[in-house]
Amino acid sequence: EAEVAQSPRYKITEKSQAVAFWCDPISGHATLYWYRQILGQGPELLVQFQDESVVDDSQLPKDRFSAERLKGVDSTLKIQPAELGDSAMYLCASSLGTGSQFFGPGTRLTVL
Amino acid sequence: DQQVKQNSPSLSVQEGRISILNCDYTNSMFDYFLWYKKYPAEGPTFLISISSIKDKNEDGRFTVFLNKSAKHLSLHIVPSQPGDSAVYFCAAGTSYGKLTFGQGTILTVHP
After folding, report:
1. What's residue B96's pLDDT?
2. SS3 for A11?
3. Which of the 8 DSSP states describes residue B69?
4. What pLDDT, on the 0 to 100 scale, is given for residue A40?
5. Are B21 and B68 in contact (CB under 8 A)?
6. What is the DSSP secondary structure assignment for residue B74, as one 8-state letter?
7. Which member of A44, A100, A104 has the closest CB to residue B34?
8. Cα(B77)–Cα(B64) distance, integer angstroms
9. Which end of chain B lies in a sparser environment, N or C, as judged by fewer CB atoms within 10 Å?
């Protein structure tokens, strides 16, 4: 069964360090999303890609966060420098178009 | 401004009975709605969706009802099973693809 892959599953870092998360969407899915989920809340969209182009990054804190999907397949989300408030689950999802989104297992980030 | 709200943080149900999870939204531009189930330390799993042109969609034990005039949707699980215990998120989407999620409801099904 096709799945969205994410790595690492867990990441512990100290504040002011740089972290990076990787996502490989379901094969053939042109649309890729990065969400952040804080404990007790629902996921919130950070950035949406259509192929290699950013469609929506209005909620991405661009002073410290960056995302890329250079070849329109896998994607990397980076935080530099990490802050205590960045501790959360970072979820990647993909969809064929703008239909139902399928999520990966997420990366649990803890910033100390 | 929370556009999608799940007002019940938790719900406890006996095995075999019906579970009803509720969700309200404020943005009339949403044109489809989804329910996701999430276990701890895992990503959300897609359960069922409904287009804004329909008022009901059924898939096995799961049925989603949409009341557009009340801006309300609900997920019915019949019969509930202990394995259904998880956090349930409703989400609303537009034609651009962005999903807006509710805060989630923790469902516990007791044997």
Report:
1. 73
2. strand
3. T
4. 87
5. no
6. E
7. A100
8. 9
9. N
Query: Residue type at A2?
Result: A
**Is A71 within 8 Å of A59 (Cβ atoms)?**
no
Q: Is a pLDDT exceeding 80 seen at residue B65?
A: yes
pLDDT at residue A110 tops 80:
yes
Residues in chain A with CB shorter than 8 Å from the CB of B91 are 42
CA dihedral A111, A33, A1, B61 (to 10 degrees): 90
Residue with structure tokens 């929370």?
B2
Residue B9, amino acid: P
What does the pLDDT read at residue B108? 98
Residue type, A111: V
How would you classify the pairing of strands A19-24 and B62-67? unpaired
Q: Give the whole-angstrom CA distance, residue B66 versus residue B48.
A: 12
Residues recorded for chain A? 112
- CB interface of B with A, residues 6-35, below 8 Å: 34
Type of residue found at A51 = D
Does residue A1 surpass a pLDDT of 90? no
**What mean pLDDT, rounded, does chain A reach?**
94
Phi, psi of A85 (to 5 degrees): -70, -5
- Start-to-end C-alpha separation, chain B: 38
